[in-house]
TrEMBL record:
Protein name: Flavin-nucleotide-binding protein
InterPro entries: Pyridox_Oxase-rel, Split_barrel_FMN-bd
Protein origin, superkingdom: Eukaryota
Bilayer-crossing regions: none
Signal peptide: none
């Protein structure tokens, strides 16, 4: 049987209104955006504050009950936090789970047009809505810690001292967000939002550079700690840096439908 592409339900709070042609509701796209983000931003209401709180947190999507599930399947968000943080305490004291919003975003290009008003970005963003509860089961907590660690650097978990000791486990809490709905938004393409009256202005067209500056995160050369005794960088770290840089660059150029430029010889000088 062909695989069914699952989508999140379109609720009033999750439906994209502006530029809805860029909207994404399929789980695969949204989960991919979330898992590719180095930092997630978690928003929740605080009873003793007039303002909602937003926290940057480490997190990753997964399924403890179905660990082989891919990003196109129903998944939950696991968040890594300190045991006595306000978010953890709020979730622990909530009977049905704490309502939270999880957001992630990436910028892939700066789209420069003839006027500042029509400048734009190539970007990917995702928002998930759900209920956060504290993970109490040891096996699931360890699973989530491994998923989050390997979500940052693949294979890092087994290449460190694991499992965490009792003190580390006691000071760390994991939140599981059961997602109810979500949406994404993706913009690709050129800097093509100029009005005809500007395009017909010969002097303006000759004076102002237009186009896209691809934008992507680049990982630098790993720097060993002063007391590091491993003489050669492990292969899994070398491959991670190389592949991450290549993939990020390729996506940014693919978003404007051009080939990645050849590396100039003087780049290595």
């Amino acid at each position: 049987m062909p695989r069914q592409d699952l989508e999140y339900p379109r609720e009033p709070h999750s439906t994209v209104k502006r530029y809805n042609h860029q909207a994404k509701y399929d789980l695969e796209t949204i989960h991919g955006i979330v898992n590719a983000a180095p930092i997630l931003h978690i928003s929740f209401n605080v009873p003793d504050s007039p303002f909602p709180a937003t926290l940057p947190m480490l997190g990753h999507m997964g399924s403890f009950d179905r660990p082989s599930a891919d990003i196109g399947d129903v998944l939950e968000v696991y968040l890594h936090g300190y045991v006595s943080s306000r978010l953890i305490n709020s979730a622990r004291n909530s009977e049905k789970g704490l309502p939270v919003t999880v957001s992630a975003s990436h910028i892939d290009g700066l789209c420069l047009t003839l006027t500042p008003n029509s400048h734009n970005l190539n970007y990917r963003s995702a928002v998930l809505f759900g209920y956060a509860t504290v993970v109490d089961k040891l096996e699931e907590k360890l699973y989530a810690m491994e998923v989050i660690t390997n979500g940052i650097i693949p294979d890092r978990w087994r290449n460190t001292r694991t499992p965490p000791n009792a003190a580390e486990m006691q000071s760390t809490s994991i939140l599981r967000v059961k997602v109810t709905t979500g949406s994404g938004k993706v913009r690709t393409g050129s800097a093509d939002l100029d009005k005809n009256y500007d395009l017909d202005d010969e002097d303006l067209v000759k004076r102002v550079w237009t186009g896209v500056i691809p934008m992507y995160t680049t990982l630098g050369e790993p720097v060993p700690r002063g007391d590091n005794r491993v003489t050669e960088l492990p292969g899994y770290l070398r491959d991670f840096v190389k592949e991450t840089n290549e993939d990020a660059k390729a996506y940014a150029y693919d978003a404007i439908n051009v080939e990645v430029p050849k590396k100039k010889q003087d780049d290595d000088a």
